[in-house]
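Narrative of activities, Objective 1.

The group set out to show that a structural description can be obtained from nothing but a protein's sequence at a throughput compatible with the screening campaign. Below is one input-output pair from the validation batch, recorded exactly as produced.
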Amino acid sequence: MQATTIKLFLVHGNPNGLRTAELSNWSGKAIAAPRTEISELLKRDELASPGVYFLTGVDPKSGDRAIYIGEAENVASRLKGHSSRDFWNSVTVFVSKDENLTKAHIRYLEGVFIGKANDNSSAIVVNSASSGAKLPESDAAEMDVFLQKCLQLLPVLGISDFNEKIDQTSETKELLYCRIRGVMATGKRTANGFIVFEGSQAVLEHRPSATRMRDKREQLLDKGLLQERGDHLIFTKDIEFGSPSTAGSIVRGGNSNGLTCWRNSNGVQLKELEATET
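Output recorded for this entry:
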């Protein structure tokens, strides 16, 4: 991504409240707000336009981050229909200032975002089905540029679920390992938590005491992100978790202390490694 200037406007002065974000030389605009200010958000003229939106919060079963991605020709009207969903606590909307987004454009963007969110796996994607629309080549290229601008703004607005994954081959000295009963997983710290790399192994059976972690592991199995391979499970993609403990618990089949179960190639615990850095 190229260097750019972001114009962030806090409508009521609260950094976590209603706010808008724009990039230099871009026709798009983002508007974000907590659920507690939804009435103020719905009054804004921009939300009567076509756009894509993101509902973010916490999954009540697993406690993990959850996200719903939608599109609408009138975003305000569509958001009113989401009042029955209880997981979300904030909303972020992207519209075009030149009113150049069509129904096909926003369906295309929605489909790409859903695909990226599922591939990233750092949050539970609440959407029950994928979407998308086929565009002429020139329109698709234009929407891909629009999408890249959205990806630049999303982390600034508190949504990091589309961040690029860390390359496993880079900085191998920082790789960490979790071993238990003959299986081994490889991962490392990230800005958002902890990533477990594709090809890592996990124990096949949950611990009897596991409850929340059992549900999380079963969700990963349902998505095909964990697959059974003989006497163990294997990660089919890089998966980012909110903490080393969550990552370690998935690998070990039950609650684990990530600061002690993840170690470097010399056997030094993550807790000790971080102590030397502070």
